[in-house]
Design brief:
alpha/beta; elongated; 44% helix; single chain
Length: 315
Amino acid sequence: MKLPRRNFLHLAAGAVALLATSRIAWAQAYPTRPVRLIVPIAPGGASDITARLIGQWLSERLGQPFIIENRPGGGNNIGTEAVVRAPADGYTLLLCGITNATNATIYDKLNFNFIRDVAPVAGISHGPFVMVVNPSVPAKSLPEFIAYAKANPRKVNMASAGNGSAPHVAGELFKMMAGIDMVHVPYRGGGPALNDLLGGQVQVYFATSVSSIGHIRAGRLHALAVTAATRSDALPDIPTVGEFVPGYEASGWWGVGAPKNTPAEIIEKLNKEINASLADPKLIPRLIELGTEPMPMSSGDFGRLIADEPRSGAR
């Protein structure tokens, strides 16, 4: 049966409008079942803590569980690839950070392209690292630590959350700029690295403020310096590395990503809810208490931050 061209165009326009309406209605109903938020690093670190804070908020606001699933290994790449390979339906998300963005310059071959294959959803927070040592280390200030490390080359073990992780990059930058030689000991995440630092198996770690600030306040770890350009409001008495090593600066950030081709309506809904959480007077103090600052932004702005990171290196 042949349809007049005008009738055909009317039918086609109606089908497109119906499809768009269906997509909007689907997004408005989202989520209708539990959502996985994959953390590509071991429990106990900053990414894990941040994910649990934002996951609890989203669960309460959207009425479905946001289940935190830790997938450590491969410098964040194992968990990230699991998200890349997941259906683009909004039910598998990624807690991503600076390490995801910089891995492209560290690994010669990956099974995915983070910038191409992960859709930016929303920023969450940003903050400095804290150079922390086990209390047994005979150095109570950063100048004393530098002198101690220079007098004992390769006798100080420096933990990291894994090869190429942000704490590793921050530590290597410090070694280079301070002119010292420490042995790098990589772990499968910030939690295991902190556990061994607390136990004295390693001596120093460039920890996120999120994961370390409780141990610092309890006296279980000694903070020598923060890595940002300015002192932290959460640790105002701790100097910056740059006060003794001019030009040094490093910091981290966290956000949420999704598989590419995730419907724009779902990304917009998640972005709106996450940004609302970052304005919540109950959540803001928790982030600040952990030494970070809320980082609300559009999904487009978050994507530009990710794209710029490999070129900017340690921030």
